[in-house]
Every structure is written in structure tokens, then in C-alpha cells.
Amino acid sequence: MSAQKQVQSRRTAASSRNESINKKRQQKSAPANKSQQSAKPAPKKEAAQQAQKNYVETEETNNLIKRAVRCLTSGYPIHLTGRSGAGKTALALEIAAQKGRPLTVLTGNHEMTNEDLLGGITGVTSTKLVDNYIRQVYKKEVNIKENWTPGRLVEAAEKGHTLIYDEFSRSRPETNNLFLSILEERVIPLYGTKQKKSYVPVHPEFNIIFTSNPIEYAGVFEKQDALMDRLITLEVAFTQKTTEMIIQHKAEVKQKDAKFVWGVLKNLQEEVKEAQGLLSIRSGLMIATIAKQADVAMEKGNEEFTQICQDVLSGEVVRFEGTDTFQKASSLVKRAVENAK
């Protein structure tokens, strides 16, 4: 065989070997690719499940959300009010999501100031120029500039976010006065910020959702009439059927168990009528979730379930002045469980 034919045969053999190796690699990678493709939808599914946990869809909640979105779309801010644990924040988040705009959340507190909302000086920038080009002449120039960082309210208003001002009545009324100009003139006055411009115009898509607890709750300031006059107030108060559905879906328990837990709370409310804050969805969720996680049957006569109810509710009875001692409160809770249906 000539040298040329030997070289050609070697090339052909090498080419066939490479093709065989590539085929084997493709066969090995194919199952992995399929598994990767099947694994891709998993994060979306988990995200959807998490979203369902944050918001329970019922006819009543859907109706409230529809009314709130209608008001916001017309350019009016809304105010969700209701007892603690009624689900105001979860509903506000869902309403904001349906607006389809970026979200900013503020939480009211008595230490909040205009600087927290508008922004303030966060440092200084110093520049120094030394000119010694001519040996006999020495020139030095120093410039110091204050750095101003806009607050979250200013940033949200300029960019057209949907703002949730959660528990706004926990902030001082003089701080909340800033919102009067925003709601009426659609501008944010920048008083006290040392800025050249006196105000910031509000983006046309900027909306505000306020939430608050009733005035009888501790740490809540009285809402000023001038601000409330500019808000559309919607009460978050659901029927027993909707409340039981919320407990059922959020705690992932059976319908009969959710109904029994809410029955305990209703009985306790009847026992201490002056303690108006006891009928709370949050307390019902605590009881149902603890019982489910501990695999405790939610029924009368079950000492473990009664103890869970006493642990969750006794402190609430004392806090809302239904009685003055934990021992008396525990007895009231026990009687409420025994009489529940």
C-alpha cells in the first residue's frame, strides 16, 4: 500500500471513531436534558403555590379587591380598615399586584419622620484641585458637596409605584400631613431637605393603599380628618363562611376543623363580650396550624387541643381585658372549647 493510501485510511478510521464517540455522548446527555427540561417548571409551580398561601380567593375577597382596584384606577387612594389579623395586608398586596406596577411598602411607626419619607443628607463628596504648573504660583481649590438620597416615598412617587402604607395610623399625625399635598395637588413638598427645587411632581400611575387598625388598639394615633376626607375607606370584615375558608386554606386543614376552631373563638367572644378583639383570624390560624403540625385532633374532649387553645387565647383574653388573670382566662377558654359545635 502506498504512503498516500495509508494516510487516507488512517484519516477515515479516525473520523469514524470520532463519530462513534459523539453519538455516545449525545445518547448520555439526552436523558439529562430531558430531566432538566422536566425540572424547569418546578420553581414556577412552587411560586404559584406560595402565592396561593398568601391570598385565599373567595367570593367576598374577590368582590372587595374588585371594588378597591376600581377606586385606584379612578385615581382615588383607598384605606383598608379592620381588626388585627383580618387580612388587610394580604389583600393590599393582592390589590397592588392587580395594578401591575412596581411595589413599595412602608410600615407606620411613631418614630417615622419626614426625613424617612423624603430623604436626607447621607454624606459629603470632597474634591481638591492643586495647581502648581508655574513654580512661583501655588493654587489650591477645595469643593465640598452634600449628597442627598431621596426617601422611599419620593422614589415611589417619581417612578409611579403602587405604595402600601401599612398601619399608617401608628405614625404621628404631623408626619402623615405630608400626604395631604400628594393626594390633593399631586406634588411632594420638599420642605426641610435643602434642595433647590421646592417640590417633586407625582407620577400619573402613582397610587396609595393605606391600612390601619381601629383607634382602640394600643399604639394607634387618631387619624386626622383632613387626610381621611381624601381616602375611600373599605372595611375588611368577612362572614363566618369566608373566615372558615381562609382558616381552612391557610392552615391546610379540613373544613369541619376550621369550622370548629372558629366556633371556639365565637364562644369565647360570647363569654367576654367586652373583649372585642378576640374574634381574630390570626388566632384561629395559630390554633389550627399548631394542632395540624402536632397531629392533634381538633375536637371537644381532646385535652391536647384544649391546651393549645388555652396557650393561644389566654393571653389575648387578658390583653383585651376580658379578665385579670391567666387562670381565669384559661377557664374561660376551656369552657368555650367544651361548648363549641
Automatic annotation (TrEMBL):
- What compartments host this protein? Cytoplasm
Origin organism is Alkalicoccus halolimnae
Compositional bias segments (type: Polar residues): 1-19
**Which ranges of the sequence are coiled-coil?**
none
Q: Determine if Oxidoreductase is one of this entry's keywords.
A: no
Reaction(s) this enzyme catalyzes, per UniProt: ATP + H2O = ADP + phosphate + H(+)
Start and end residues of each ATPase dynein-related AAA domain? 79-231
- Indicate where this protein is primarily found: cytoplasm
* CDD domains linked to this entry: AAA
Check the record and name the InterPro entries matching this protein.
ATPase_dyneun-rel_AAA, CbbQ/NirQ/NorQ/GpvN, Gas-vesicle_GvpN, P-loop_NTPase
One GO molecular function term of this record is: ATP binding
Query: Keywords for this entry?
Result: ATP-binding, Cytoplasm, Hydrolase, Nucleotide-binding
Domain of life per record = Bacteria
What is this protein's name? Gas vesicle protein GvpN
- NCBIfam families associated with the record: gas_vesic_GvpN
**Biological process (GO), any one:** gas vesicle organization
Where is the stretch described as Disordered? 1-56
Which GO CC annotations does the UniProt entry carry? cytoplasm; gas vesicle
**Gene encoding this polypeptide?**
gvpN
Q: Which Pfam families match?
A: AAA_5
